[in-house]
Structure prediction request, 557 residues.
Amino acid sequence: MSQSNYPIPQLPNYQIQRYSSPMRARHLIWSATVVLALSVLSTTDLAQQPPYDVLIRNGRIVDGTGSPWYLGDVAVKGDTIVRVAARIDGAAARTIDVRGQVIAPGFIDIHSHARDGIFELPSADNQVRQGVTTLIEGPDGSSPIPLKPLLDNVAATGVTPNFGAFIGQGSVRAEVIGSINRKATPAEIERMREIVKQGMLDGAFGLSSGLFYVPGTFTPTDEVIELAKVAGAMGGIYISHMRDETAKVLASVRETIEIGEKGKLPTQITHHKVIGQANWGGSVQTLALVDAARARGVDATIDQYPYTASATNIGSALTPAWAREGGSDATLARLTDAGSRADILAETIRILQEERGGGDPQNVQLSRCRWDPTLDGKRLGDVTKARGLEPTLRNAADTVLWIVANGDCGGIYHAIGEEDLQRILKHPATMVASDSGVTVFGRANPHPRGYGTFVRVLGRYVRDLHVITLEDAVRKMTAFPAQRIGLSDRGIIRVGMKADIAVFDPATVRDRATFEQPHQYAEGVGVVIVNGRIVFENGQMTTARPGRVLYGPAFTQ
Ligand SMILES: [Zn+2]
Prediction:
């Protein structure tokens, strides 16, 4: 956990001042006079405070709307942006001269797993150091039921970034039906609709699903639509980790669009990708489906992380869903029964060949094995060899079942094509999201997306490869996700908006986290402000914890 080995990046070209000495001297003298002469301290002393709390000067303002950058200053008072102008001369408690670097709205991560880690590390360093100021939880159909205690706990804990959540369809189904593969009865659907409604009243931004996972995968489309209608009627959106991101990805995109269309609510393909080399290029058709849907008035959008590897636990990724029905005891029973074990093994071999295995066990990397941390970071082929087996697909599949039987591990799957990644990123309806939790520095071998998603887009895909423009990239991280979930007071640098701000150097901003060495913070981000408070500067997190719980459109106290 120690971070002492990490070299603090120096950003010598920042000039940061407390408010100017004459101002300070005047203030002190005046205050002293007041103390001596009068007892009417509070109002008169208040009048002597500088007009701004934070003044950021000489920035290239990339305002989040997609408009070209312009030169200017941004002034903050309290938690709000109070002035944006070519030049602002008023005094401020803190003046920061950013000398031509970018002033952008803080980044909004619409697909985060922040409840994994936020209570252990409320400062969320891996995210905030990239410029992220808002984390939205409850994706992939997974959220606490009910939602309220989570949001209350975050508010009580005091966290650095803002925090919001979706209500998860898989969790709702598990609550009512369990992890069982059967249709819901009308009474059960009614009960699930009630839980979704309560989640929306508790402050969810909409309904998430993980139709790839157990138990979401057991859900017929019509049942999802019935729940989506509830979220939609209350102003929420639908966001889905789709049923299949491999050979059946087109059918999954159609289903996601259908749920939005029939559920009458905005619908979003989350972390869109096409997995398995045989399916590469499929984004041409998936994006055409999204375009066709939008052309006929379906509000369908996309989010994405900028890596050619995905991550989820080994069992979910590499064994068939039927093998995991009913929970881990049922899974273990199937693994010890010779007949069902052979069936699982055959299906796992196929998945290693055609889907997340990418045809080679070395494409699979273990990220976290709680039962044996020495496996963290190792490749499946190497683990198979270490078990005394040739690293064939069959033996690797046997190793997969051995891992699941031992309590499973997190895994990373290098099976996404770069061309699809870039094509999806370029699409105007695609925003950027990490799919990451709050990462404790140095622990295990997580997917680098938690440390690098946003700065990787700005460094690799904007500056180095020119895939999208700087302004478009910032839009995909700020105004676009804000608008998607109805955060009308965040995501744009404009007077009256909440002061969530990221300052970064477009010439040096980059991700350093790799699949081999993920625990490396972002580079090139200079200052991060949440609700008007500086949370990161000079390469260091501050002690401020100004993050707020953000509530969705149907929230009632
Ligand atoms: Zn997911």
Q: What stands out?
A: Residues 140, 241, 271, 435 surround zinc ion (CB under 6 Å). Residues 324 and 330 are 7 Å apart (CA to CA). Residues 1-44 have pLDDT under 50 and may be disordered. The two ends are 38 Å apart (CA to CA).
